[in-house]
Amino acid sequence: MATKDFGAIETDYAFFMSHATEAKSDVEEYARQLNGFADGRSLIHLLDFGCGTGEFSRQLLETLAWPKGALFLTLFEPVDHQQELAARRLSRFSEHAIASLGEASFDKQPVFDVIISNHVLYYAESLSQTIDQLLERLHTEGKMLLAMAGHENALIKLWKVGFDLLEQPLPFYVAEDVAALLVNHDVRVNTSPSHYQLRFPDTEENRWKILRFLFGDYLRQIPRDALLKEFDQYVQEDHIEINTYSEHFTVELNPQTQSSAQ
Ligand SMILES: C[S@@+](CC[C@H](N)C(=O)[O-])C[C@H]1O[C@@H](n2cnc3c(N)ncnc32)[C@H](O)[C@@H]1O
């Protein structure tokens, strides 16, 4: 599948983040899934896969308030300067050096108690391979938490309109692809919707910011007016207001298989 360079659309993504309640809803849902997780654990290894600038995990770790001595953080982010910023931003939540996924030598592959990948797997080169690799690194009593929007999400519908105009299939994965792949693994999966609102002053430049965040490089090829007018259905006085939802997946390895394999 296609890759997407978030370095090039950094300010557009920041605009989306600051005008949407998505992160707040995602934090609430993860916190609900991780309620009590730290109880009785002296060590928690957490991987944030596709951490961006770490702003999302900052909000999550603030909410979780896990003991700094227990928490070991590992980050993975393809945009180097964003990973560096994330490491600085998250350092106050752990007494230990923040690791990068790429640093571990092959025979010292870390295993994680918690893996978070928040709105990242759309952009995997191979979703199947990425899910396999993440599950290989999940501790037998760990949890993997994934957020992804699916076909019913308003922004995914915008993707569909745009790529239909280009007469090509979606080059990115969606929640339904994650669900279809997880059934092939020996895991327990709990899914729950996370509702959020995107609201911003209705100007052409603001509509364009959301489109740049969504389409990246593809935007140059898509007829501008056709896509801009897709926002008309969401006009509320002088604002655009979109109420929609994403899917959360909480994935745990199947304990029966784990014990019979030992
Ligand atoms: C929508 S942002 C989400 C960032 C962060 N998780 C958050 O919730 O704010 C998607 C992130 O995935 C990263 N990304 C893109 N392709 C990736 C890949 N193949 N593997 C891991 N991360 C990727 C991007 O660089 C970007 O930081």
Description:
By secondary structure, this protein is an alpha/beta fold. The protein has a domain at 10-150 and 169-198 and 243-254: Vaccinia Virus protein VP39 (Rossmann fold), CATH 3.40.50.150. The chain is 37% helix and 24% strand. The chain contains 10 helices and 8 strands. Helix 1 (10-19) crosses helix 8 (204-215). The longest helix is centred in the N-terminal third of the chain and has 12 residues, at 22-33. S-adenosylmethionine (SAM) is lined by residues 4, 6, 49-52, 55-56, 76-79, 82, 118-120, 123-125.
SSE inventory with pairings:
Blueprint: H1 10-19, H2 22-33, E1 44-49, H3 55-64, E2 71-76, H4 80-90, E3 99-100, E4 112-118, H5 127-136, E5 138-148, H6 154-165, H7 175-182, E6 187-201, H8 204-215, H9 224-228, E7 235-236, E8 239-253, H10 255-261
Helix pairs in contact: 1-8, 2-3
The chain binds S-adenosylmethionine (SAM).
Which descriptors would you attach to this protein?
262 residues, alpha/beta, Rossmann fold, 8-stranded mixed sheet, 8 strands, globular, binds S-adenosylmethionine
Could you write a compact summary of the structure shown?
The protein is an alpha/beta fold.
